[in-house]
Amino acid sequence: MSAELERRVRALESQIAGLRSAGRPRYLFDTYTPTYRGLTTAGVTTYSVQIGLYARVNAIAFVWARVQWSAATGTGFGIITLPFKLRVATAGNLATPVTFTADGLDFAGNYVLAVIPTGTVTVSGQTVSYVRFDSIAATTGNLTPINVIGAADVYITAVMPIEDTA
After folding, report:
1. Residue 142: Cβ within 10 Å count
2. Are 160 and 128 in contact (CB under 8 A)?
3. Secondary structure in 3-state letters for 80-110
4. How many Å apart are CA 130 and CA 158, to the nearest integer?
5. CB 59 within 8 A of CB 162
6. Quick one: which H or E segment has residue 11?
7. Which residues are CB-neighbours of 60 under 8 A, at least 6 positions away?
8. Which of 23, 83, 121, 142 would give a disulfide with 32, using CB separation of 3.0 to 4.6 Å?
9. Could you give the CA distance from residue 37 to residue 126 in angstroms, rounded to a whole number?
């Protein structure tokens, strides 16, 4: 075999080995502690239930959380923290939708949408994304983020692309 052909074969073998190792997904199942807080000022919150679980497969995270709180004192938009930082699309300001159920939230006859916006917060020294709740006026369609609510019980389910930090 010529030296050039041998070099090409070795290069292809190396590429195939790299593809095989990259093709093995990395799995991680763990818990985390979601918090409810204000985006402007975190404030203090009393929790009855505060549990989160996630499954990470490579750079995709599946997150489930339940937060039941009372006496929330934060200011600004009310948010629930996530265990990872959302991978932001280069296409611009793209929010990721979240499925949720809530008890104790008064939406005043409006629709509500839960999203993971492109912003982040710092929790215990780690930069993470969060879920924000937006009120959509039933008559006009105007979108308004919902400020901190004193007490509620919320379940969230999110599928999010995350920053791949290995």
Report:
1. 11
2. no
3. EECCCCECCCCCCCCCEEEEEEEECCCCCCC
4. 10
5. yes
6. helix 3-23
7. 159, 160, 161, 162
8. 83
9. 16
Per the listing, tokens 């990872």 go with 84
Report d(CA 22, CA 12) in Å as an integer.
Answer: 15
- Helix or strand or coil: residue 4? helix
- What is the residue extent of each domain of the chain? 26-161
Please state the separation of Cα 33 from the chain's center in Å: 13
Angle at 101 between CA 97 and CA 106, to 5 degrees: 105
For the ranges 90-94, 101-105, 112-116, 153-157, the lowest mean pLDDT is seen at 90-94
- The verdict on pTM exceeding 0.85 is no
DSSP state of 148: P
Distances (CA, A) of 47 to 6, 50, 144: 65, 6, 26
Question: Dihedral angle at the C-alpha atoms of 99, 102, 106, 111, nearest 10 degrees?
Answer: 20
Tens of pLDDT, residues 38-63: 999 999 999 999 999 999 988 889 99
Q: Please answer whether residues 49 and 81 qualify as being in contact, where contact means their C-beta atoms are separated by less than 8 angstroms.
A: no
Q: One-letter amino acid identity for 95?
A: A
Structure tokens at 89: 């699309």
